[in-house]
Design goal:
310 residues; mainly alpha; 4-stranded mixed sheet; 4 strands; 5% strand; elongated; metalloendopeptidase activity; Peptidase_M48; membrane; metal-binding
Length: 310
C-alpha cells in the first residue's frame, strides 16, 4: 500500500502518459504557431515535474535510512511505508537513466552542431545562404550568430528557381522564429519520461507546419510551397546526418504537410479542448510535484524538531 504523502508524487509520473493523444489533437486543432508554443511549454513543464517527483521520492527513501537521516540532522529517520523503499529505489534508477541519456543526447547534439558549423564556415556564403558542394541533396536551417541556410549543390539542381525560393523562405522562417530552441527543449524533455517521447515528433511537426505557412505567405503561392517541399523531400531521402536541433523542410510527415498546404488555411483558434486538457495536465503535474515537495519538507521539519518524549 502506498502511503498518502507519496500519492501526489505519482501524479507527475502518470500524467505524461496522456500527452501523446492530446499532442496529436492539439496539432490538428490549433494554428501551427499556437500548437508549437503549447506543446513545447507543456512538454518541458511535464518533464521538470516528473524529474522533481523522482527526486523527491529518492529523498524520501534516503532519509528513511538511519545513515542518511543522521547526515540530514534528523533526530530519527522518516517513517517508511512498505512501498517507500521500492519506490525510492525505482526513482533513483530512473533518475540515473535520465541523467545518462540527457548527457549523451546533449553531447551528441552539440557535437553534430559544431561539425555542421565547421563545415559551413569553410564554404563561401551569400547573405544567409551557404552552399556546400555535395552529391547528396540536403537543406536545413543552421542556427547561430548569424543563422544560415545550408543547402547542397545537389539540392539546388533538384529544384526549379521558384521552388528554391520557396525552400529558402521556409528555412528563413525557422531561423527568424528560432524553432531550434523548441526542438532542443522537446528533444531533451523526451529523455525525462517515456510518455514525452511522442511529443518530440509533435513539436517538430508543429515547427515545420509553422514554417510551411510562413513560406506560403512569403511566396504568395501555397501550391508552389507544397511542390517545393515535396520535391525536396523526395530528393533528400538519403541525406547525410544533420544536427538534431537544425530544422529542415524535408523532416516530419511531409505528405501530411503537403496536404495541409494544398488546402486553404483553416481558421483555427488559439484555444481548443485539446489545449485546455494540456493546460489541465500541466496544472496537475505542478500541483502533484509541489504538494509532494511541501509534504517532504514538512516531514523533515518534524523529524528535525522532535525530541524523545516530546
Amino acid at each position: 500500500m502506498i502511503a498518502p504523502p507519496l500519492v501526489p508524487l505519482l501524479v507527475p509520473l502518470l500524467v505524461p502518459c496522456a500527452l501523446p493523444p492530446l499532442a496529436r489533437r492539439a496539432a490538428a486543432r490549433l494554428t501551427p504557431v499556437a500548437a508549437l508554443w503549447c506543446l513545447t511549454s507543456t512538454t518541458v513543464v511535464l518533464a521538470v515535474c516528473s524529474l522533481a517527483a523522482l527526486g523527491t521520492l529518492t529523498l524520501y527513501g534516503l532519509l528513511a535510512l538511519p545513515a542518511f537521516a543522521a547526515l540530514g540532522d534528523l533526530i530519527h529517520p522518516l517513517s517508511a511505508a512498505p512501498a517507500l523503499l521500492p519506490l525510492a529505489a525505482a526513482a533513483t534508477g530512473a533518475l540515473a537513466v535520465c541523467a545518462w541519456t540527457l548527457l549523451r543526447s546533449a553531447v551528441r547534439q552539440i557535437s553534430d552542431y559544431h561539425a555542421a558549423k565547421e563545415a559551413a564556415d569553410t564554404q563561401p556564403t551569400a547573405g544567409d545562404l551557404c552552399v556546400i558542394d555535395s552529391p547528396e541533396p540536403d537543406a536545413y536551417a543552421l542556427p547561430g550568430s548569424p543563422g544560415r541556410i545550408v543547402v547542397t549543390t545537389a539540392m539546388l539542381r533538384s529544384l526549379s528557381p521558384a521552388e528554391r525560393e520557396a525552400l529558402f523562405a521556409h528555412e528563413r522562417a525557422h531561423l527568424s522564429a528560432r524553432h531550434h530552441y523548441h526542438l532542443a527543449a522537446a528533444g531533451l524533455a523526451a529523455h525525462c519520461h517515456p510518455g514525452l517521447r511522442p511529443a518530440r515528433a509533435a513539436v517538430r511537426l508543429a515547427a515545420e507546419r509553422a514554417a510551411d505557412e510562413a513560406a506560403a505567405t512569403a511566396t504568395g503561392d501555397r501550391r508552389l510551397t507544397a511542390q517545393a517541399i515535396g520535391r525536396a523531400a523526395l530528393a533528400s531521402r538519403a541525406a547525410r546526418r544533420r544536427p538534431t536541433i537544425a530544422p529542415a523542410a524535408t523532416s516530419g510527415p511531409v505528405p501530411q504537410r503537403v496536404a495541409a498546404l494544398l488546402r486553404p488555411p483553416l481558421r483555427r483558434g488559439l484555444v481548443s479542448v485539446a489545449s485546455a486538457l494540456l493546460a489541465l495536465c500541466t496544472c496537475l503535474s505542478l500541483a502533484g510535484a509541489g504538494a509532494g515537495a511541501l509534504t517532504l519538507h514538512h516531514n523533515i521539519e518534524i523529524a528535525q524538531g522532535e525530541r524523545p518524549g516530546g
